[in-house]
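Propose amino acids for all 243 sites.
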């Protein structure tokens, strides 16, 4: 009788563990209340999507910044900043009265970017180490948050977005640039992206193809408060086939 009862408890614990995204011990504390993504997570394989010279030849950054409405005096976060292609161009656009926070989750990338910012004397740029489950951004601080060719690499997208949400100002916007292909092929199908952002209270305002930026441009605005972590239902992996 006791053995049977214990077996039943173990089954229930295993079921709860599966629903919460597997073994909680292998997840950061800030992610354990959130479901895992129901899709593959792409590994980080490079700190750059393409060379800066090649990107400038097709006017990538200027085009994306124009579309995102980046103006002098704004405060912008560049998440997954890598070598700083967007960081320095955003810094030039927002000017001395604006601010750019460049963030990455790899310490060696942050160190290299910090050296570049110091060497090129970008006084309106701050550099910060983030975490896969939490960008650790100050609340109500940003007019725009950029995520360029990095969304598919976020290991804990629901936790990450939940912690990111309060950092936007009331009229702030989230800007995503990514390729329209499955996440395990280093892209994010637009319908999957819109679904995952919608779970956090974001509405897709604009989606346009941007082949010169390697995919598409998506602009989101937060329209409702972020949900309780326990109420989040992950978007089905079949969303990828609908991209």
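Proposal:
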């Amino acid at each position: 009788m006791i053995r049977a009862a214990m077996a039943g408890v173990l089954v229930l614990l295993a079921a709860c563990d599966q629903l919460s995204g597997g073994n909680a011990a292998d997840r950061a504390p800030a992610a354990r209340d959130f479901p895992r993504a129901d899709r593959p997570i792409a590994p980080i394989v490079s700190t750059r999507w393409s060379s800066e010279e090649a990107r400038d030849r097709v006017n990538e950054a200027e085009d994306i910044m124009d579309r995102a409405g980046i103006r002098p005096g704004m405060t912008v976060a560049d998440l997954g900043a890598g070598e700083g292609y967007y960081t320095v161009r955003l810094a030039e656009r927002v000017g001395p009265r604006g601010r750019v926070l460049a963030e990455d989750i790899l310490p060696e990338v942050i160190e290299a970017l910090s050296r570049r910012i110091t060497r090129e004397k970008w006084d309106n740029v701050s550099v910060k180490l983030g975490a896969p489950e939490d960008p650790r951004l100050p609340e109500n601080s940003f007019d725009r948050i950029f995520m360029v060719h990095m969304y598919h690499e976020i290991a804990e997208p629901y936790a990450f977005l939940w912690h990111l949400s309060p950092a936007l100002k009331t009229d702030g916007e989230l800007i995503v640039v990514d390729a329209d292909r499955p996440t395990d092929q280093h892209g994010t199908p637009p319908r999957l992206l819109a679904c995952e952002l919608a779970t956090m209270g974001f509405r897709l305002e604009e989606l346009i193809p941007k082949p010169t930026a390697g995919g598409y441009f998506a602009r989101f605005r937060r329209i409702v408060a972020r949900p309780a972590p326990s109420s989040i239902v992950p978007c089905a992996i079949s969303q990828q086939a609908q991209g």
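DSSP finds seven helices and seven strands in the chain. Residues 138 and 167 are 6 Å apart (CA to CA).
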